[in-house]
Write a structure and sequence with these properties.
By secondary structure, the chain is an alpha/beta fold. It folds into two domains: 169 residues, NAD(P)-binding Rossmann-like Domain (Rossmann fold); 190 residues, Dihydrodipicolinate Reductase, domain 2 (2-Layer Sandwich), CATH 3.30.360.10. Helices cover 28% and strands 20% of the residues. The chain is built from twelve helices and twelve strands. A six-stranded parallel β-sheet has the order 3-2-1-4-5-6, sandwiched between helices. Strand 11 and strand 12 form a beta hairpin. The two termini are 23 Å apart. The model has no long low-confidence stretch (mean pLDDT 94). The chain binds NADPH dihydro-nicotinamide-adenine-dinucleotide phosphate and aspartyl phosphate.
């Protein structure tokens, strides 16, 4: 496998560059050794204006000067012909059609939007969970008549931490049994709703027990992410019950999870304390392809999962930036009287939950040989 860092960085286009996810892409790519921001796309409202004027910059690091001066373009494939990879942070109301137009023009697209996540030939990849699903790219190219392009999607931001935890437990399935039931209650940050998102009057001194469409995604996406790679991508027998809440936190989605293992497995032989100990070991020892030296991905978190022993952790403000926002934190691992084991998980929703997964997926796709310079692909 090739190293992801090339002498000449790959040129990146960002669709939805003015949004919460688009801004995060810009910060993550600012000093990236393997990618350079080439083109910034947004709606007709922003197009034609310098990015620094079109955007309401909400990142805590300064907007790079060269990008502030760059003119925003509309999201048309022909305006991105000099880009090797396209990162999409488009609003879901327009992402579906725009991304298909880019795919038809043989672009390599990595999307945060929900529109194509469940299509059978589209990999839905949490890079620290199921990077091997990127090997579905050749079948997708064949099916869609693409030469170098592909469409890869990133999961819902609340699903990432949940999936990392489940994948770690699955690594111990010979002892614990297969996960077959999960109850998850999320506490999701305000930035998940984009900028400006919900009003301060709605969010301060409050918790909102509803996020439109979120519970459906949390109940379906992990089933695909944890499924086996095949054509089409196979689903597992997992059942997830989700309840989603919006809480007054800026960044960092937290989730309380209870997990049950298949009754006919060896897990039923373990008492609750023993199963909990195996779960802690599984979390502590979790390794992922992206974090191995074999791929040498610049953004891969090492370790990908932090197990916190303090009784009051993880907390969004204190723990969301672990691994530069690419690592997941888990704490309060304990027996569950209803299912088997319960715990609390935290992931940064706009880094591992969105733009960061986009960047890391691109690094992995490049290391696997699926993402190359546009002119390097001989037709
Ligand atoms: N925020 C998060 O934590 C996560 C978000 N996502 C997903 O990522 C995507 C972006 O989310 P987020 O950044 O929060 O959203 P924002 O609302 O903050 O940004 C949306 C972006 O889409 C652009 N846009 C809107 N309409 C058009 C159009 N007709 N043509 C071209 N561009 C358009 C906007 O440009 P303009 O400024 O010109 O209007 C803006 O750049 C969404 O699909 C979201 O569901 C996924 C995971 C997590
Ligand atoms: N709905 C998520 C963010 C998001 O946009 O997710 P998705 O891309 O799955 O629609 C949140 O509010 O936190």
């Amino acid at each position: 496998m090739a190293s992801q860092t090339t002498a000449v960085p790959l040129r990146a286009g960002i669709l939805g560059a003015t949004g919460a996810v688009g801004q995060r892409f810009i910060t993550l790519l600012a000093d990236h050794p393997g990618f350079k921001v080439q083109r910034l796309g947004a709606s007709a409202r922003s197009a034609g204006r310098p990015y620094g004027e079109a955007v309401i910059w909400r990142m805590t690091t300064p907007l790079p000067e060269a990008l502030a001066a760059q003119t925003v373009v509309e999201c048309r494939p022909e305006d991105f012909d000099d880009c090797d990879v396209i990162f999409s942070g488009l609003d879901a109301s327009v992402a579906g059609d725009i991304e298909l137009a880019f795919l038809a023009a043989d672009h390599c697209i990595i999307s945060n939007a929900k529109n194509h996540r469940m299509a059978s030939d589209v990999p839905l990849v949490v890079p620290t969970v199921n990077a091997e699903h990127l090997h579905a790219i050749p079948a997708q190219r064949l099916r869609r008549g693409l030469r170098r392009g592909f469409l890869v999607t990133i999961s819902n931001c609340a699903s990432v931490g949940v999936c990392v935890a489940m994948k770690a437990l699955e690594a111990q399935h010979a002892t614990l049994g297969r996960i077959n039931r999960v109850n998850v209650v999320t506490m999701q940050a305000i930035s998940g709703a984009g900028y400006p998102g919900m009003s301060a009057m709605d969010m301060l001194d409050n918790v909102v027990p509803y996020i439109g469409g979120e519970e459906d995604k949390l109940e379906t996406e992990p089933v695909k992410i944890l499924g086996a790679l095949s054509e089409p991508l196979l689903l597992t027998d997992l059942v997830v019950s989700a309840t989603c809440n919006r809480v007054p936190v800026i960044d960092g989605h937290m989730a309380s999870m209870s997990v049950g293992f298949a009754r006919d497995s060896t897990a039923s032989q373990l008492d609750a304390a023993a199963a909990t100990k195996v779960a802690v070991d599984a979390f502590t020892n979790y390794q992922t392809l992206a974090s191995t030296d074999a791929l040498s991905c610049a953004s891969a978190p090492r370790p990908p999962l932090h197990v916190l022993s303090s009784a009051d952790r993880p907390q969004p403000r204190l723990d969301r930036d672990r691994g530069n926002g690419y690592a997941v934190s888990i704490g309060r691992v304990r027996p569950c009287p209803l299912l088997d084991v319960k715990f609390t998980v935290l992931a940064h929703n706009t880094i591992l939950g969105a733009a960061g997964s986009g960047v890391l997926n691109a690094e992995i796709a490049q290391a696997m040989g699926y993402l190359t310079r546009r002119e390097a692909c001989k037709h």
